[in-house]
Amino acid sequence: MLEKGGVIIDNPGMRELQLWDASDGLHNTFLDIEELAAKCKFSDCQHETEPGCMIRKAIAEGKLPVVRFESYRKLQRELLAIERKKNPDLQRAEKKKWKKIGIMAKEIQNRKERGM
Length: 116
Ligand SMILES: [Zn+2]
Description:
It is a single chain. The chain has 116 residues and is mostly helical. The protein has one domain (14-113): Ribonucleotide Reductase Protein R1, domain 1, CATH 1.10.40.50. It is 68% helix and 0% strand. It has 4 helices and no strands. α1 (14-29) packs antiparallel against α4. The structure holds zinc ion.
């Protein structure tokens, strides 16, 4: 709420919402992989060559098709790429928005000084 009765509304970024949905989708689609990953020896397991990796074990035992794991990794990378790609745009948009607000504030100040 502003002093003179105005209101500034900061709506949540669409980017966050979209990413959240995508991450959620990834989680649901690859629930079996997520469950296996949770049992890995290391919580930050990259499922590459780490000892005690349950995903590697499941693949070796034929319980998890390697193509399925690869599509999981691919989706994960894509999500990360989207996040990285959209960040600079968001920052630029934010800068532009604040510049506009700054100009508007100056105009209001000028009008006040001129008694308008
Ligand atoms: Zn692992």
